[in-house]
Amino acid sequence: MIFNKDTAEKTAELLLQINAIKLNPENPFTWASGWKSPIYCDNRLILSFPSIRNYVRDEFAKNIEKQFGKPDVIAGVATGAIGVGILVAESLGLPFVYVRPEAKKHGRQNQVEGFLQKGQNVVVVEDLISTGNSSLMAVEALRNEGANIKGMAAIFTYGFNVAEDNFKKANIDLYTLSNYENLLDLAVQKQYITEDQQSTLLEWNESPSTWGQEKE
């Protein structure tokens, strides 16, 4: 669920402007999972544009507090959400921790890095939601440390049905600055794509794991 429509449209426009999101239905990208995709999203680019990263920081800080109440700690999911998570924590005057994909094999063997006390209220910041699996693994790691997860806030989601189901099963409220639906509407309006290309992008979103296989 998006925080609000205006933020969703503005965020989508900014991501397109800096090529953090690329749309290419005719020459699809290949994800690490092997899926063919007409869209590629790299929100780490936001950190290289001061005015845009400040916008993302401010929208996160404002909407997190409004939606979840002010938490005790902000947690970022490594690695993509560490930078923006720190910005949000700084804006709210809160401690910050981050969550590794898995525990370290050496030293203290931490998966959650930083100071976290049992029972603290945590909002998790993420850069991108696809299936939600890696994001929810971070939630599980925080819960294992005794954290009370108030919810998750992400920059962008592809809006897959499987992600919605996964978050429901985990009993985690997810809110995003923007999403796939608002992105496509904005992209057509601003002539980044045609309506025919929009149809292709919508088809992919319905069945991303099998889309494009017949073209090989």
From TrEMBL:
Domain Phosphoribosyltransferase: 59-159
Gene3D superfamilies: 3.40.50.2020
Annotated residues for binding of 5-phospho-alpha-D-ribose 1-diphosphate: 100, 104, 106, 126-134
Signal peptide: none
Pfam families: Pribosyltran
EC number: 2.4.2.10
InterPro entries named among the record's database cross-references: OPRT, Or_phspho_trans_dom, PRTase-like, PRTase_dom
Cofactor(s) demanded: Mg(2+)
Assembly and oligomerization: Homodimer.
Main function: Catalyzes the transfer of a ribosyl phosphate group from 5-phosphoribose 1-diphosphate to orotate, leading to the formation of orotidine monophosphate (OMP).
Record's protein name: Orotate phosphoribosyltransferase
Source lineage: Bacteria, Pseudomonadati, Bacteroidota, Flavobacteriia, Flavobacteriales
